[in-house]
C-alpha cells in the first residue's frame, strides 16, 4: 500500500508564518504598523490553536496586508532563507519521494510554490489558496471557492483527493490536527521545531521536534542517522548563553545544571562545561553515551584527557577568557558530531575529512593495536560494499577511522563493525 506525507507550510516547512512576514514587508512604512503586526499575529495564533475559525482569521488577515506582487517577491526571497533546518538537510528525501509528498496549506501558492519546488516537490502536489489582484497588482482578496480558504478545508481537500494508501500528516496547527480528528489520516505528527502549540501537541499521535525525528521513527531514509533532538546535551556550570543557543539551534535536547550530576551525565551524548565544573575520570566511566566534551577553559588534568580518550570521548578546550571560546567550542563540538572532525582536540588524533555527498559515513574508535583496519575492511569486502573514502589516524591510545561507503547495505554490517575486538565506540554519522 502506498504512503503519503501531507506537510504543512507555515511554521512547519518554513520557520515562520508567511502572512505575518508579508505584513512586515508591506506595512513597514505604515504609522500603525506595530499595532497591525500584533493584530495579524493574534489572528494567526487564534486560528492555529482552534480558538477562531480559519475562514474568519484568513479574511481578516488578508484585509490588513495592503500587499502587492512586488511585496510577494520580497517575501519569497525571505522565505527561501527561512526553510526549517531539518527539512532543508533532508532534500534527498523529497527528491526520492516526489509522488508521495504533498504540501497542503492554508497559505498561498504565490509564495509557497517558488519555495518548495526548489526541494524537488512537484508543483501539482502543492495545494494552497490563491490571491486575487487588481489592475495595480495589489492583493484585494482570494479565491473563496478553494476549500483551503474555508474552515475544515484540509479535510475537504483530502476527501476530494481520495488518496489510495496510508496518510501521515505533519503540521503545527489545529487545521492539521483536524485531519486526524476526521479519520482521514493514519497518524498526525505535531511539528514543534519552530513553535509548540499545547492545544495541538496534546492531541497528536506523536510530537516531532524535527523532520529528522519523523523520518527516524518511520524508518525512512534521512540525512543524519540519529535525530539530534534525541541526543541530550548537558550544560554544566556557567557557560556563555550564545554557546547554549548554538546547541539549541542545532537541535540538541539541552539541559542546564549548576554541577555535574551522575544521573544527567549518564544520559548525555554531549557535555559543555565551565572550567571549574569538569567531570572526574570516575564519572566518565559511568557515561556510556557520552561522545564529546566541550570545556570552556583548560582541561583539569592529563588523567582526565587520557581517561576520556580511552573511553572514546573527545575533548575540545580553550583558554577560559579567550573572547572567542563561546563560539569556538560549540563549533568544534558540532563539527565533530556532524562530520567527525577532530581538529584542535586536546586528546584525539587530528583528522579533518572532507564531507562526501551521496555516501554514508561510519566512525570506528578502537584501541591502538595492529590489524583493526584490516578487520574493518574485511567486513566491507565480505558484504560487497564499495569504500568511497577512508581515513585512519592514531595516537598512543586509540585508532580513529572514518569510512565513507556507498549507500545501500544490510544493517548487519553495522553490528559486525561494533563487534570487532578492541572496539571502543562506533556510530553511523550520516
UniProtKB/TrEMBL annotation:
One of its GO terms (biological process) is L-serine biosynthetic process. SUPFAM superfamilies: ACT-like, Formate/glycerate dehydrogenase catalytic domain-like, HAD-like. GO terms for cellular component: cytoplasm. It holds the Pfam family ACT_AHAS_ss. It catalyses: O-phospho-L-serine + H2O = L-serine + phosphate; O-phospho-D-serine + H2O = D-serine + phosphate. Its cofactor is Mg(2+). Residues 361-430 form the ACT domain. Its EC number is 3.1.3.3. Residues 55-82 form a coiled coil. InterPro entries: ACT-like_dom_sf, ACT_dom, AHAS_small-like_ACT, HAD-like_SerB, HAD-like_sf, HAD_sf. Signal peptide: none annotated. Keywords: Amino-acid biosynthesis, Coiled coil, Hydrolase, Magnesium, Metal-binding, Serine biosynthesis. GO terms for molecular function: L-phosphoserine phosphatase activity; magnesium ion binding. Pathway: Amino-acid biosynthesis; L-serine biosynthesis; L-serine from 3-phospho-D-glycerate: step 3/3. This is phosphoserine phosphatase.
